[in-house]
Amino acid sequence: MPKAGSSTSKLLSSELLCVFCNEYEDEKRYGKLISNDGIAAHNFCLLFSSGLAQKGEDNEGLDGFLIEDILKECKRCNKLKCSFCKVKGGSIGCGNSWCKKSYHYGCGKDNGAMFTYHGNYSSYCKKHSLVQEELPAEERKTLKPVDTCYICYENLNTTISPTTILAPCCTRAWYHRQCIEDMAYSAGLHYFKCPLCNNVDEWQAEMLRIGIYIPDRDASWELVPGAYNSLLQPNLECVADVCICPQGRSEDETDGEWELIMCETCGCQAVHTQCGKLKKKDKEWLCSMCRGTASGSSKENEVPHEPETLRSENKRQSSSSNSVPPKKTRPSKSRSKKKALAKGVKTLDNYFTVTKQSSTGLTVSSDSQFNARFQDG
Predict the structure, then answer these.
(1) C-alpha distances out from residue 319 to 57, 300, 312, 324, Å
(2) DSSP labels for 190-201?
(3) d(C-alpha 279, C-alpha 101), whole Å
(4) Which of 33, 37, 255, 364 measures 20 to 30 Å from 288, CA to CA?
(5) 10 Å Cβ neighbour count for 61?
(6) Are the C-beta atoms of residues 107 and 85 closer than 8 Å to each other?
(7) Which of the two residues, 318 and 104, has the higher pLDDT score?
(8) pLDDT band for position 199 (50/70/90)?
(9) Distance (Å, rounded) from C-alpha 174 to C-alpha 159?
(10) Secondary structure string (H, E, C) spanning 65-111
(11) Which residues are registered as beta bridge partners of 354?
């Protein structure tokens, strides 16, 4: 199986041409242009040539493709005309065994051919290229008609075609194929994911299947030389309430009284050695925020540079909130006794007694004499 993109081969200048497609160097379109012993070829032209195998080590020939094998392949493809430009040298054949089309790599890209950048690096013409499955009719009815690419936000045709791609995950969104190719080339294998739901596994598997090239490298913005130098050299100033440095707060001399000492915990703030009254031998300093965290206090109980009026007002509010509420007074015994007595009288008014059983049956009468005696005393 061919190995893509080894960096051991020597890179060429743009003055040399590829022996297969006769084009100059264009890494984004053709891959790296590599050379050895006066022979130059694009990486993708080598990988997709139908009669070429990678028989050597990475440091031999052109990334493992031996020079004698490359010359034999050139002789073979010089007998074949490109199906699109009609010029000899079409080294790439359609992966369908019944198809007789052959073409240059660039001509195939321009005419809807598909290239699979994994496994055996096969290619298919537009007629036999692998396509995505159409959405079921029921699912098409439930989805809202969105005819906008979620990368460039321009209109597109929401049908399966060589120029459009349907997301395999989340919202089943549509994209331009060119937008996906540009995104994959910029993000690289480690950052290429669905723009909407951040799905990685399902997204990358489908993109590889339908012929999207995902370079096995870091993102392009991570490879810019010195891209993060500004983070390593923060622009700090003295944060003391009163900076006494004659040259100003941004002065930072080496091993002197006006050296800026950063907070040893967060590194976000700094103070001059003299302004912070730091010892020359032991230059350790904590900003107000980290000092409060280290001592177990929080912003609620430690306000840096709090004005005197605000401090006194906060103290007065805290004292009032912490004061003991007044105790509830209990009612006197005589008052409670009268309430109980009144309650008992009301109960006895509705009390009936049953007299002894007589010959005529049960007689029920109110015991008014008992109630009168109870009320008198």
Answers:
(1) 82, 15, 10, 10
(2) TT---TTT---H
(3) 81
(4) 255
(5) 23
(6) yes
(7) 104
(8) very high
(9) 9
(10) ECHHHHHHHHHHHCCCECCCCCCECCCEECCCCCCCCEECHHHHHHC
(11) 364
In angstroms, rounded to a whole number, what is the distance separating the alpha carbons of residues 298 and 289?
Answer: 9
- CB-CB contact of 188 with 218 (8 Å): yes
Give residue-wise pLDDT tens across range 241-293.
889 899 898 888 888 888 888 888 888 889 998 888 887 777 788 888 888 77
Q: How far apart are CA 299 and CA 296, in angstroms?
A: 10
pLDDT at residue 285, as a whole number: 85
The band of 158, judged by pLDDT with boundaries at 50, 70 and 90, is confident
* Cβ pair 123, 114 in contact under 8 A: yes
Does residue 363 carry a pLDDT above 60? no
Supply angle C-alpha 238, 239, 241, rounded to 5.
115
Proportion of the chain in helix, strand, coil states, percent, rounded to 5: 30, 10, 60
Cα dihedral 104, 109, 114, 116 in deg (nearest 10)? 80
Q: How far apart are CA 165 and CA 180, in angstroms?
A: 8
Please write the tens of the pLDDT for every residue from 99-137: 999 999 999 999 999 999 999 999 999 999 888 877 776
- Given a contact cutoff of 8 angstroms between Cβ atoms, the answer to whether 99 and 90 are in contact is no
Q: From residue 167, how far is each of 154, 172, 203, 366 by CA, in Å?
A: 16, 5, 7, 92
Give 305 or 127, the one with higher predicted confidence: 127
- CA 377, distance to chain mean position in Å, is 87
Q: How many helices (H) and strands (E) does the chain have?
A: 12, 13
Token output for 122: 């096969």
pTM flag (> 0.85): no
Q: Kindly report the average pLDDT of the chain as a whole number.
A: 77
Confidence of residue 176 (pLDDT cuts 50, 70, 90): very high
**Is 160's pLDDT higher than 90?**
no
Q: Tell me, what DSSP letter sits at residue 268?
A: S
Give CA–CA dist 107/41, Å, rounded: 16
